[in-house]
Amino acid sequence: MIKNVLLAFIPIFVAVDAIGVLPLFTSLTEGVKKKEKSKIIFQSMVTAMCLAIGFIFLGKAVFNLMGISLGDFMVAGGSILFYIAVADIRGPGKGSQYANQELGAVPLGTPLIVGPAVLTTSLIIIGEYGLPATLISVLINILLAGLILSLSGFIIKILGKSGSRALSKVTNLLLAAIAVMLIRKGIVQIFHL
Prior knowledge:
Elements: H1 2-16, H2 18-28, H3 34-66, H4 70-90, H5 100-113, H6 116-129, H7 131-150, H8 152-159, H9 161-191
Helix pairs in contact: 1-6, 1-7, 2-5, 2-7, 2-9, 3-5, 3-6, 3-7, 4-9, 6-7
């Protein structure tokens, strides 16, 4: 069981990409007070956990019921990520364009912490490592993402303000590239059905 959890943990860790979310979190919450940031982090973790657990149990059934393929889901999720990346790259870099009340749920909880990559990876690894190992690895990764976001102030102090802004822009560019990759893979999957 422990071996399966460790094997399931690695692909979910890569899919969650908490380090990659950090600069986005910083740019989205710039100027937000520490107490409000804590609420946003908590909301993002609750949203991510609910979505991931719900999807693990109901994802395939919902897809089948609605006639949605995994490719359709990847294209939709990639499109949302691309929009977020482009909006943040174009933005003036001061503060969030999202309401603080929603920021934890969208875009942090989903699609940034738990998005198409995590959901798709979860469905794949259930078959390989089992449901319990997948659930445990997803939950650990979401908690780890919350811890990293909680330490964002400390991590950003090390990088400096200009370093964190530069990292944020580069990360947004990478996020756009990941979004394009998801869209491309989704389109390939749609046409190979």
